[in-house]
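Re: duplicated header lines in exported structure tokens

Our pipeline writes sequence and tokens for each protein into one text file. With two proteins the header for the second block appears twice in some exports. Here is an export where it did not happen, for reference. First protein block:
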Amino acid sequence: MGRCAARLRRDDAQRPVSQLSGQRLRWDALLFDFDGVLADTEPVHYGCWCEVLKPFGIQLDWGFYQKQCIGVSDRLMVERLAAERIPPIPFDEIWPEYLRKQELFRMRLEQTPPFLSDTLLLIHDLSSYYKLAVVSSSGRLEIEPSIERAGIRPCFQTLVCGKEVPNLKPAPDPYLRAAALLGCRQPLVIEDSDAGVASAEAAGFEVLRVSSAGAVAREVRAALLR
């Protein structure tokens, strides 16, 4: 299977997590990415960035955003967009608008919670068997209030967010930090992006790459109960 968990059988996804009771667990913790995994937030991020960047003459294409921006730090994304604009625009002209982008994002999450009920149930179930962490390049103020409103903050022993580590994904720092805080040695990372998978693999951890936020509950249950 290597570093990435194998494709999962559909029938396994229906087995209840309670079957883990009394079993020797293969992993000692589960480390979840946030955007696109725990929460279907990437379209929200995209919409906020489009609104913020439009006055600077930057048209952000959804296909480009999916391939080049997901899992990458916001600062690196803005640096690239500023440099590739024709003509280029100084990074320092755009970056002050980042605070407005964050505020837009928080407001929209309050208006439309991004969590699927199946994912929320999964997290509640798993918290009885595993140490859990959220590991994201997004800032804590973008993540913690939303998981508190969703009622799952107590399920996570720790969060590693944004600038809380020297280097963001695809560097291994975020996942190494989460593992150190949890005191775990063999976690399973749940990711959806190239940068996130690279980060987890660089940390030496096994990765389950989910196909979409909507498939997280099914694919994670199946991986744990194989």
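Second protein block, exported in the same file:
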Amino acid sequence: MKNGKRLLSISLLLCLTNIFVSAQEKPDALKSYRIGRDLEVQGRMSDANTRYEEAVQICKQEIAQNATNMDSYTVLTWALLRQKKYTEVIEWAQKGLKVNPGDYRVIETMGEAYFYLNQFDLSLKNMQKYIEVAPNAERISVAYFFMGEIYRIKQKYNHADIAYTTAVKLEPTLPIWWYRLGSVREALGDYAGSLSAYERALKLNPSYKEASDGVDRVKKRLG
């Protein structure tokens, strides 16, 4: 009887161990994506792309098993965006939004993909929707920056000024954002405001030549 109980306990322990190991070994797309981002920051793009592709394949397998898993669509579109596969981002984002039309994560990523495909009106529409649906979401500052980029390209400088100003208010540590703000203010003839933005860009990155040139230009304008 004791031997039987002992064998049962051992079997149960082995079963639980197998379940635990299986859970540990389950592919994690988000983990692969985050490792890829870290590698990209280090300039190791080849290694980063390997991790992004790993995340892509995991997500596709997950979607094949459960086509309603929005987390899978989200990480998949993130990874494809980092791989610069913008058309595929759109394709998978559209599939995901059929499942949940209000998933703001996919909406924002889709907006970025449209931007890089030079489909600026669609990009703007997505960024505006993202801000409307999730005004406090993680990438709100990024959405405003892309809106600024679109308005700048369309030469709607007043709109660009508003969008960039909002972006740098939310995320004040990126030199290029301040530089872009300075450039549209310069285009509007707001030389004092432009100088302030260019100087902020230079403070964050003292070797930023374009910002330094901008400072020199607007100082001449200001006399």
